[in-house]
Amino acid sequence: LCVSSEDERKKSQQNPGRRNQNKSLQAKSVEVKEEESEQAKSERQIKELRSENTD
Predict the structure, then answer these.
(1) Widest Cα–Cα separation across the chain
(2) Prediction pTM value
(3) pLDDT tier, 1 (very low <50, low <70, confident <90, very high otherwise)
(4) Segment 9-54, tens digit of pLDDT
(5) What is the number of alpha carbons within 13 Å of residue 13 lying toward its C-beta?
(6) Across 3-11, average pLDDT
(7) Alpha helices in 1-55 (DSSP H)
(8) What distance in Å separates the CA atoms of residue 54 and residue 50, rounded to the nearest whole number?
(9) CA distance 33 to 42
(10) Residue 37 CA to chain centroid, in angstroms?
């Protein structure tokens, strides 16, 4: 019982850090999505330029 209570205390102490990590991970994923959208835009522009050239 003593060990389990200590484990619970450790978990409760770790939880706020995990929440912060999740927030930072979400922020990173958003940044990555924005970067991907920028890449997609540039790739689409390149494709359009190529299609214009072939026409």
Answers:
(1) 77
(2) 0.39
(3) low
(4) 777 666 666 666 677 777 788 787 888 888 899 999 999 998 887 7
(5) 6
(6) 73
(7) 2-54
(8) 6
(9) 14
(10) 14
Buried b (16+ CB within 10 A) or exposed e, 32-54: eeeeeeeeeeeeeeeeeeeeeee
pLDDT attached to residue 44? 92
The pair of structure tokens assigned to 26 is 């979400």
Distance CA 3, CA 7 (A): 6
The residue among 28 and 2 whose pLDDT is bigger is 28
Q: With the C-alpha atoms ordered 21, 26, 28, 29, is the resulting torsion angle positive or negative?
A: positive
- Token digits of residue 49: 């330029």
